[in-house]
glucomannan 4-beta-mannosyltransferase (Oryza glumipatula), 570 residues
Amino acid sequence: MSSSGGGGVAEEVARLWGELPVRVDWAAVAAQWAAAAAAARAAVVVPAVRALVAVSLAMTVMILAEKLFVAAVCLAVRAFRLRPDRRYKWLPIGAAAAAASSEDDEESGLVAAAAAFPMVLVQIPMFNEREVYKLSIGAACSLDWPSDRVVIQVLDDSTDLVVKDLVEKECQKWQGKGVNIKYEVRGNRKGYKAGALKEGLKHDYVKECEYIAMFDADFQPESDFLLRTVPFLVHNSEIALVQTRWKFVNANECLLTRFQEMSLDYHFKYEQEAGSSVYSFFGFNGTAGVWRIAAIDDAGGWKDRTTVEDMDLAVRATLQGWKFVYVGDVKVKSELPSTFKAYRFQQHRWSCGPANLFKKMMVEILENKKVSFWNKIHLWYDFFFVGKIAAHTVTFIYYCFVIPVSVWLPEIEIPLWGVVYVPTVITLCKAVGTPSSFHLVILWVLFENVMSLHRIKAAVTGILEAGRVNEWVVTEKLGDANKTKPDTNGSDAVKVIDVELTTPLIPKLKKRRTKFWDKYHYSEIFVGICIILSGFYDVLYAKKGYYIFLFIQGLAFLIVGFDYIGVCPP
């Protein structure tokens, strides 16, 4: 009964449909949609991609020019032996006073030499540094400097009461040994690291100090650090900052740390050296440096308006006419993040902060009257635009978007010099920083392209001042490497995890099970799949010859996306 009724309804619908005066020609509809898509492609998509190609090539040439300039400067510095102590006056502290004293009055000479040592404040900001607080405090307290001419200031912002108690007891232990060490805490964590450093300068005993040596909690300076750096400030009144080089104790822990070593070695050996030699300016690295307190005050003190308070202070100081000097022969031991999660958060801060600072200071830089026109151009164009904006932008847009998309568009042609020659020269210029890792260059470039996804997002966030612009995530050292790598000098590497500064760290309180879908990085997986699909299309249809690069670059995204980089987090 119901079956025959259903058949009757179907027949009636078919009869009414047949009587309609309008017929739908689906083939014609599809042809119209195809024509519209082709018109949009010709009018919008192809011109837009061509514009991206032109912009990417222009930025690539900018980066090439900057790398060649840096290489030429560093080559000249080495060829003519233009070391910092040859460009600026450098004499051992106390030598002049001792020589001026009577030769037959040895005691008078020693007293004069001791009095020549200026008062130095050593600041160590800390946040829940359970595993490394002894190393950093011990290294600072072992600096060769008259005990009555140095103050060690531990700025403890720890939220873990157990860690805070341990740090305080460590300071009391060194006090018992006669070291002038101060343990300082504050009632709130406003401004994070910048706030702690600013608060530390308000104490009365700081008024007696002329210089500040700064070390993050995982940094361990050699005992002669002050003896080799402070003389630059004492004998050259125009110098505000002496920056030293980082030495990485866990660089061989995994591929992730090797890649970081390659990037940072180039930054210190070449970028910092070139900035110091030509412009007497570079970005302060936030640690392992010595500042003139008068320069900090002249620049307006510490500000917490961005997540790169160190760079903010450096830019404001140079706009006041102060000079910086980089001393690469002095190395300070430190650690590298060994988990990808920690490294990704660090890179977000290092990419977002500079872009945000550039937005806040671009007009101020151009309007400044205290520095030369060329120094302003260097600061605005070379340091900020090329180094902090273009480098992040072109890496992702060009290598991870434009080249894969061009495979799908036969109208798009990228010149060979822009695909092969220029990128090769840029890579070789950067790879010379770590010759021992030259065999890892291809893997390093692929990884840097993957990281450009996060860096461009962070840079855009900083420019637009969007959601995560002021996000600050600290890397908490676990010290696991100390248990696996023996080191007679006590410079063992440590692993890191990252913890939001607003989150108290109470270790081993409870175990939290990681959800299956939280283990992977879906943005990397998505980009990797898209690039690999472009590679297959190139093999089957486009025949542009990009497929080898597309396959290995897509695979690199997938490897990182499935978290097969770095050590496994605890």
